[in-house]
Amino acid sequence: MEKGISQAVIRRLPRYYRYLGELLEDSVERISSSELSARMRVTASQIRQDLNNFGGFGQQGYGYNVKNLYDEIGRIMGMNQQHNMIVIGAGNLGQALANYVKFEKMGFVIIGLFDVNPALHGVSIRGVKVRMLDELKEFLQKNRVDIAALTMPKEKAGKVANMLVELGVNAIWNFAHLDLEVPEHVVVESVHLSDSLMQLSYNIANREDERKNKK
Question: Residue 149: how many CA atoms within 13 Å on its side-chain side?
Answer without folding.
Answer: 25
